[in-house]
Amino acid sequence: MANFNQMPNEILEQIFDNLDFRTRRNLTLVCRRWNAVLLSERFITRHVSLVIDGQRTLVLHKHPIHRTYPNLTLKLDNAINGDAFKGLRLLPTIVPSPATVKLHLAFPNDPRWVALCEEQQFVNLRTVQTFHLTGSCRTEHPRKPLTLQMDQLRTLNLVCSGVQDLWLVAPKLSRLHLHVLSEEHLDFLLHFIHQLHTLSIVFDAKESFFFYHLKPTSLRELAIDRRQKGMTKSERNISIAFFKRLDHLQRLELRVKFIDSYVLHTIADGLKQLSELSLEVAEGTIELKHIASLTRLKRLRIVACR
């Protein structure tokens, strides 16, 4: 146990990241370093966030906050009124240089969203490294699309409609989680496909649009969630051709209704460099002989879901 207490904060942070809160608290009985980790600048920067919903923005200017926060969760879930902007204008003094921003837009055509994009007077987006955008970013603004300049953005989580009204400038973006609701989402993806190292994509409809025609040549990790539809013979040629273009892929995760055995066999034969593979299907069987060619595989996960 002495060795455990002598571990550097960086290692302990990684251990605690994989534990629930109760287990973390129990660790205080054997780890004297818990408070040092909990109060470390690195841990605070990653985990401490100011959470504000739409109603609280109305009274933000009436209740001063005397400390700064490294991260922000902002839920614009109320109807707009005159006091909303007054409270939001205080955010730069409370969250001056956010590393992570989670923004939920409950209503389309929200003028606060337009102001955030055009003036960046509420949130300093140029320092944001991780950005979560959910809800509806649709606007009726005369100068479409709205532009977000995010010079330091590395990770983007996009679960929203109206992406055709959004233009994102993010030269360092390498990780993207995208919910595909329409073909416009793939148009958005097309702008970043060549710079991404990690892509997680969820199809909420059966249609895959032109996804299998993309050329993500830099991908190291790929997760595809198509639980509404299987990988069928009708998509055999284009899906096989797609996976053959992934020369640098190391980790693959497929969540599908079912997968054609020939497609699986051919995909595995073309991705012999894979080190991790996860397959999750609701119907049919998966025969291990179809992935026998993956000789470099270090981790295999197969799930039969209902």
Automatic annotation (TrEMBL):
Source species: Anopheles maculatus
Recorded superkingdom: Eukaryota
InterPro entries: F-box-like_dom_sf (IPR036047), F-box_dom (IPR001810), LRR_dom_sf (IPR032675)
Species classification: Eukaryota, Metazoa, Ecdysozoa, Arthropoda, Hexapoda
F-box domain: residues covered: 1-47
TM helices/strands, residue ranges: none
Stated name of the protein: F-box domain-containing protein
